[in-house]
Write a structure and sequence with these properties.
eight-stranded mixed beta sheet, 10 strands, 206 residues, alpha+beta, two-stranded antiparallel ribbon, single chain
């Protein structure tokens, strides 16, 4: 199995930017990926079809925080100069409630009937008011994260598919995201799904 197929703890942050244009080529690639994902219905005693992708509810809060803890740890270990361990919950309950109550934001979860094992967080973003910037809007994929024990079953692919459906329902034809350079699995995953490089952030310690 290729490294990109071991996924999916997908940490999304601000080191390199990619985009996904919902064009014919991308749809063809998604069709091929769907065929591959469907071939993995059963693996290691885990039933791929038991996973349900749905909109999050506030009762998912505790389970979501467990996933955020794993996600945040990955960032903290790779960039301790930027991230610290929170004293309380990984995210405030008000933060989750705000997403759930905003029609321009979405939080999808993967549920295996007993608990939430993954999530995808996204929102609609508009371009800034600047003379040389074209007015546009897109879906910003803020993060997809899957618990470690469930990272071999292509749950990230299911969540990404849901984000694409949500973008289309909003009549938006572009998805953008940011990935830290240390997260090679995420980089490979998104590239395999049709995302392309757009820009790169750099830094200099003094």
């Amino acid at each position: 199995m290729k490294s990109a197929e071991k996924l999916d703890m997908i940490a999304v942050s601000n080191n390199s930017t990619a985009y996904f244009l919902l064009n014919r080529r991308a749809r063809k690639r998604e069709k091929q990926n769907n065929h591959y994902d469907n071939a993995l219905t059963h693996s290691g005693g885990f039933n791929y079809m038991d996973i349900k992708i749905r909109e999050a509810v506030i009762n998912d809060y505790e389970s979501l925080c467990e996933i955020y803890v794993e996600l945040d740890e990955q960032h903290r270990l790779n960039h301790p100069e930027l991230f610290i361990k929170p004293e309380d919950y990984a995210r405030a309950k008000e933060y989750i409630s705000e997403i759930l109550n905003d029609s321009n934001k979405a939080l999808f979860v993967a549920d295996n009937d007993t608990k939430v094992v993954a999530f995808a967080e996204c929102f609609i973003q508009k371009s800034s008011e600047f003379p040389v910037i074209k007015k546009r809007e897109w879906v910003q994929l803020d993060g997809i994260a899957v618990k470690r024990d469930y990272q071999k079953y292509h749950i990230g692919s299911l969540l990404l598919r849901k984000v694409v459906e949500w973008a289309k329902s909003k009549e938006i034809k572009r998805i953008e995201l940011k990935v830290y350079s240390f997260n090679k699995y995420a980089d490979e995953f998104y590239s395999r799904k049709g995302f392309k490089d757009l820009s790169k952030a750099m830094y200099l310690d003094l």
